[in-house]
Specification:
Strand 1 and strand 2 form a beta hairpin. It is globular and about 80 Å long. It has a 25-stranded parallel β-sheet that branches. Strands 7-12-18-21-24-27-30-32-34-36-38-41-43-45 form a 14-stranded parallel β-sheet. The longest helix is centred in the N-terminal third of the chain and has 13 residues. The protein has a domain of about 55 residues. The chain has about 550 residues and is mostly beta strands. It is built from 6 helices and 46 strands.
Length: about 550
Amino acid sequence: MKKNWVIIGTFLLSGMALGKPLKAYFSNLPFPMPELTEPQFPEYTVSITEYGAIGDGMTLNTQAIQNAISACAQRGGGKVIVPPGTWLTGPIQLQSNVNLHLERGALVQFSPNIQEYPLIPGLDGKSDQYIITPPISAYKANHIAITGEGILEGAGEVWRYVKKIDMTEPQWKALVFSGGIVTPDGEQWWPSKEAMEGKKTLEELKKTKGKLSREDYEKTKEYLRPNMVLLEACHTVLLDGPTFTNSPRFHILLSQCENVIVRNVKVLSPEYGQNTDGIDLRSCRNVLVANCTVNVGDDGICLKPAHIGSHQTPGPSCQNIVIADCYVYSAHGGFVIGSETYGGVKNIDVQNCIFLGTDVGLRFKSNRDRGGLVENVFIENIQMRNIKTDAILFDMDYQGNAPEVEMKKDLTIRKEAPLTNRTPRLREFYIKNIICNGAQRAIVLNGLPEMPIQNIFFENVYIASKQGMMLADGKNIELNHCRIVPQTGPVCHVIESKNIRFQGGEYPKDLDVFLKVTGEKSENVHLISVDFSHAKKPIELGENVKPEVVKIEK
């Protein structure tokens, strides 16, 4: 795999080029990938004003915008123009062969009136579970796009609850003063009592009735939150240019879509926004996400490998995906896979991204109930700074909590469970040319006793952190020419793991312990050309760990 590199210190970095031609993202990939194509549209153009839309921020334009989209589709497709102005609207549905184009100065303001968003039995109309109609949706549409330099604003504040711990004191006081309701313990704010009690109401209804009706869901409508953009089972999709902000839930959710390009978009929400993922790819194949900027309250750019659709061929649900030249600021994770992985992941390339201030940098999470095979993941040239918890995290026992809660788990407590078809399997990750200045922990690999994380390869990884690396239930893990610089504790704590190899690299010389090995199943830990002579105690072995477990080669 050949690339043009610029050498900075001992690390290889390729330049972040803006406006790269499409083919440039797919040259020299470490796996074969079909060539992506952009949707093509007829020359026909129509403005939403031709169908009566008024951009005064007060007139509801739902029908006018939808009529413009429908008329354009009926003529064979083209471009629907949203000119400068504030365009108040309820939910709108994209249709095949239509490019919804937001000109610079256009603000599409989704209505804060919850009643504008009806309950529906899924986008296909066949689901047993009702959802709120998304502000923007499409189902089984081909050749669709949202382009331009305008902004889509989701009015998320009327839907989302807020945790007091996530706000400053002045923010919290202002929020409480604005209305809504605070939970009895004083720790959460909800827009309404119905929203606050919605989860409990749904659970009680399911216990007594089993299958719920539309009327049952109506009782909890203010609790149910829509994803801002939901495109399902679509083919040949382009999102290019707009800003998506303040979603009630996920901002951009592409589900079971193929031949997708997401580039030059911004995704923004308050850092305290609950579940406000940036860009989520659920069971999508043949995708490029490039030159995007994300600042949200949950995961930044995330793969969600769930079930594939009936229109998709058998195989891993997330496959052939390239993520390049992206920036993630506030987020639970910069690049994320999970937490559901049961659909499978294969052939992922992440390159030339910057994560600044995210909770976790690279985050791979699953658990015994939602697991599947994740393999062939290639990550290179990632710059990180001020990561709040773990720079790199593999967690096969994810419990669904926020990163700062998850990191408190005691990894020395290992409990085996039976293998099932939902046991997560993470393997064949190739991670190189990573720089992280500032993290709580450098690298954490938390496998399972019945299924270790295996075949993970680190090369040219530099991380300065408060704590070093923890490896529990891992197999065939290699660190080549890496530099892990913790302030305290060992550089690496190996727990119940085997075939671990450190070769070369640089490590601090004033630590009490360089390597700690615990767990009677730990074996075959190799140190090759590693200088740990200045450590006060180079190697510390736990109870039942034999000295020959660690092999040292000069």
